[in-house]
Fold this protein.
Amino acid sequence: MLDFLKILILNLSYIEAIFDNPLLKNHKVVHRAEYNEFNQASYVKEYRGIYFCFYIKEGVFTKLEILIKPHYYFNNGKHNSNDFSVINCIKILLEIKNTLKIPIKEARIINIEFGINCISPIDVKKLLNQLYYHGKNLFYNTTDLAFCKESYKPTPTGVANKYKLIKLYAKFFKPLGYCSNKNTLRIEIKSKRTEYIKTLGILTYADLLNPNTYLILSNTLKDEVEAFLIMDYYNELKNLNPKEKEKALKYANPLVWGEKLNMSQNVFNDNKKKYLKLLDKTGENIHIQLKNVIIEKLNFLLKGVPI
């Protein structure tokens, strides 16, 4: 479930000890750095795909940032295309903690990314093509991945807000070769703000070893999907009378929703409820189908967790 963590440590004795740890190898940053931290840190070291960014001022360590991809670590750094259960996630984090002697109660989580892989209830490209809103925020096409959309609240300058970002993409088409099902959908939530991370019940590394934390992450994923607005223009609109069909077709037009949102959030939400009610009547509400798939996968990933 956990895909990326950025951890801040200010404990000077630990920073000095880990800098001298023979398990860590110097990491040479070449060409375009994978992380911005590589360009900012004084030294970068690596252990099994975990990066340690050391910051020094006037000859003294000031901080250490650790960049971890738990799901990739679980797969020996190759991919995150398979299921990563909560039990396996906690085992991996315990292994990393014990191997590197991380002071878990002092290791603050300052960036997080979590999500799941599931099978889209319809052709995944069609699903993404119809996905337009998360709450009142638009989903935008991205250029870094094929068949990928992101939703966020733009800053006044129009760039992505770092508080929370929702990302969905067709996993099969990511050029790694580890995903076998063409309709695999990846759903992720990312944040670079501790204000948001705290709402997940996460302050330090120690919280990530608590099974209850993953129940919060699971419920958060379900709540975020609940806020999606998918304009299902592939729906055959069965069981609707002519007037209802006309309304449903109108709701499948993105321009209509832009107008509703310009009126007010209440108008937007009221019309969303009406649209979902029409889709319910057709017997093919894509929102419910997607939510059920996600609930099933989350229950599978939480299996065996003592919550």
